Amino acid sequence: MASNEWKVTSRASSVITATWVFQGLWMDCAGNALGYIQACRGLMIAAICLGFFGSICALVGMKCTKIGGSEQTKSRIACLAGLIFILCGLCAMTSCSLYANRITVEFFDPLYVAQKYELGAALFIGWAGSSLCIIGGSIFCFSLVKDNKNRRVGYAYNTAASAISTRTKAYNDSTDFKAPNASPKHFDKNAYV
Fold it and tell me: Where do the TM regions start and end (predicted)?
């Protein structure tokens, strides 16, 4: 009884402009989706899907995970994740820019007599998010270049002698008297744990 979809017009009448009308017992509703709105929707859905797959690739390509194979394979997967993130950011930025262009064109057109709108906060958030996706994707892409140029060189870890262990060694070396079953008072790195 409360639904407005008792009678619905066909939505497949035109590819460029989709117009529909809902008629119910209490209310009639009409809506349309112009071509640029459908393009923006498609680009945003593509950006969401690319962001999801980019996140999965980035998770596999990180060096701290155990899946993904060798270091070289992981760096290639991370570079692929970077490319996917860059595509995600470009799709989202294109969508926001296309929508904002239409708003500004209608706002500054003196012959446009319908309701005029200004840029909303969601567009600015979309631009910021897409910029972060592009920057993050670029960083992931540089992980491949950095990994090929500089191979990690292992260094031996030499522990620093503490003041207590140095004094104890000097004291044990300088004394002439040693108990027959006394263990040496040498403190190593595990003595403090």
Answer: 43-65, 77-100, 120-145
Model confidence pLDDT, tens digit, residues 71-97: 888 889 999 999 999 999 999 999 999
Two tokens, residue 83? 């490319």
Burial profile 129-153: b = 16 or more Cβ within 10 angstroms, e = fewer: bbeebbebbeebbebbeebeeeeee
Distance between CA 164 and CA 183 in Å, rounded? 17
Residue 116 has pLDDT above 80, yes or no: yes
Q: Give Cβ neighbours of residue 122 (< 8 Å, ≥ 6 apart).
A: none
CA atoms within 13 A on the CB side of 50: 23
Asked if 130 contacts 90 with a C-beta cutoff of 8 angstroms, the reply is yes
Rounded to the nearest 10 degrees, the angle between the axes of helix 71-108 and helix 121-149 is 150
Our CA angle for 87, 135, 44, nearest 5°, is 35
Its pTM stands at 0.64
**CB-based burial, 47-56: b 16+ in 10 Å, e otherwise:** beebbeebee
**Whole-angstrom Cα distance, residue 53 to residue 67?**
16
Mean pLDDT of 107-112: 92
